Amino acid sequence: MKYVESTLLPGERIVCEGHPCFWAMGPRVTLSLLLMVWGVLIGTVGTSPLAAVSFFAAGLGLFGASLLAWWTTEFAVTNKRVVARFGAVRRHTVELTLARIESVRIEQSLIGRIFDYGSLVVGGGGLIATPIPGISSPHEFRRMVFLAQAAEEPVSLRLVA
Q1: The pLDDT value given to residue 22
Q2: Are residues 58 and 79 located together in one domain of the fold?
Q3: Is 15 helix (H, G, I), strand (E, B) or coil?
Q4: Rounded to whole angstroms, how far apart are CA atoms 15 and 90?
Q5: Are residues 6 and 77 in the same domain?
Q6: Count of domains forming the chain
Q7: Element counts in the chain: helices (H) and strands (E)
Q8: What is the pLDDT of residue 161?
Q9: Where does the YdbS-like PH domain lie (predicted)?
Q10: Helix runs in 11-109, H state only
Q11: Residues 120 and 97 reside in one and the same domain
């Protein structure tokens, strides 16, 4: 959690940390393993060593890209903001103050519902809806955003006449 901790403001503390879900990367990891196995199978037959090396290298590269995406994704809810960073080559950072967030939508596939992961789409007044992909336990993360918003709101005074 290096990026989030480095952007904390004075008096700000982390309320909840989110984690990427490895199941969300399942299709890419499966494809990379299939490519590597296919490369080994072609290599053992010995018909085309260049094709074998190409398939294995493509699978290894895809697997490395999946691990890199896993390691470079971090997000948290603080008592003042939602902070997220994901991507290594094309880095995306999201820092939204809690006061500007109006909606937090969860997008899940069937597999995402089974393995409890999904994407959060955070939107607010005048803000472009910002997706944060592959979050583990997205309902809990959304709940923490709303709890942090409720704790930040000033108490309204009622005047009795």
Answers
A1: 80
A2: no
A3: strand
A4: 27
A5: yes
A6: 2
A7: 5, 7
A8: 38
A9: 70-131
A10: 26-45, 49-71
A11: yes
Rounded to whole angstroms, how far apart are CA atoms 135 and 24? 8
Q: Which two tokens stand for residue 66?
A: 């999946």
Query: Cβ distance 20 to 135 under 8 Å?
Result: yes
Give, in order, the Cα–Cα distances in Å from 145 to each of 51, 56, 71, 72, 130.
49, 43, 23, 22, 14
- The reported pLDDT for the residue numbered 153 is 57
Within a domain: residue 160? no
Q: What is the DSSP letter of 47?
A: S
Asked if residue 12 is part of any domain, the answer here is: yes
Q: Which residues of the chain have pLDDT under 50?
A: 155-161
d(CA 89, CA 105) in angstroms, rounded, equals 26
Q: Is the whole model's pTM more than 0.90, yes or no?
A: no
Task: Report the pLDDT value the prediction gives residue 133, as an integer from 0 to 100.
Answer: 81
Residue 29 sits in the same domain as residue 42? yes
Q: How many CA atoms lie within 13 A of 158 on its CB side?
A: 1
Its domain, for residue 46, covers 25-68
Task: Specify whether 138 is located in the same domain as 96.
Answer: yes
Structure tokens at 77: 């809810």
CB 102 within 8 A of CB 89: no
pLDDT at residue 93, rounded to an integer: 82
